[in-house]
Amino acid sequence: MRLILGLLAVAALIAGWFLLMSGQRKTTPITLTFHAHMGDEPLVYDQFVYDNPGGGGQFRVRDFRFYLSNLSLTQGEKSYAEPDSYHLLRFDNEDKTHSITLPEVPLKSVDTVQFLIGVDPAANGSIEVRGDLDPNSQMAWNWEVGYKFVVVEGALKQGDDVSPLVYHVGFSENAREVEFMLPPDVLVSDDPEVHLIVDLAKFFDGTAQIDMQALPSVKFNRADAEILADNYAIMITLAF
């Protein structure tokens, strides 16, 4: 009888341990995959296939990249902030995608995802190398400490005339916060992946419409940079 009672006690302890562990989800990797689009279709590089949204002519995209920073995930009142969270996203690959994997997120589930398009003021005013930030990179201004938050380069074709397009946006006030509520079925797998659309068309036709002929370049003009920043604030959406 004592042996049976002892075995039952051990079994109860083991069952209790398994129940406890099943209610405590271990850290799990979460991947955010960004898909570069122009409107409803994947972005095409180096071809005059896109209409100037605010005027005449067609344009092509030669380069598109931007900084994403301060990535954090939230579950109710709990949150996880990625350390040294500075990512340079670029899409000049076959799939036109860029993925960010957080290998250990200590949350049972995730309700919201938040990040900045751009760089926070403290890091933007520092020469410390962290994440993808490097003051000697092509994404840093050469006239002051700070980074270009979004770079878009290409050309506009009108008849036989081809003129360059250069949009470099990056003052501290141009950082834009983005937040997404995740549907409950997104993180049901052991290795979940969240897909997001980066619609470059909204960079030129978002809250304001850009005529590339009238505004072929933006670099140091704060008013023009503000217009483009308000546009790229809405260029990322969840893919369903």
Helix content: 10-25%
Order of helices and strands: HEEEEEEEEHEEEEHEHE
Mass-distribution shape: globular
Q: What distance lies between the first and last C-alpha atoms, to the nearest angstrom?
A: 60 Å
What does the average pLDDT come to?
Answer: 88
The assigned structural class equals alpha+beta
Say how many strands there are: 14
State the helix count.
4
Oligomer: single chain
Give the DSSP E fraction (strand runs of 2 or more residues). Answer: 35-45%
Largest beta-sheet details: 9 strands, mixed
Poorly predicted ranges: 7-23
How many domain units? Answer: 1
Write down the Rg: 23 Å
Detail the topology: elements first, then pairings:
Elements: H1 2-22, E1 28-38, E2 41-42, E3 50-51, E4 58-75, E5 78-81, E6 86-90, E7 97-105, E8 112-117, H2 121-124, E9 150-158, E10 161-169, E11 176-181, E12 193-199, H3 201-204, E13 217-218, H4 222-232, E14 236-238
Structural commentary:
The strands form two sheets. Strands 3, 4, 5, 6, 8, 9, 10, 11 and 13 form a nine-stranded mixed sheet that branches. Strands 1, 2, 7, 12 and 14 form a five-stranded mixed sheet that branches. This protein has one domain (27-238). The chain has four helices and 14 strands. The model is unreliable at 7-23 (pLDDT under 50). The protein is α+β, with helices and mostly antiparallel strands. The longest helix has 21 residues, at 2-22. The chain is globular.
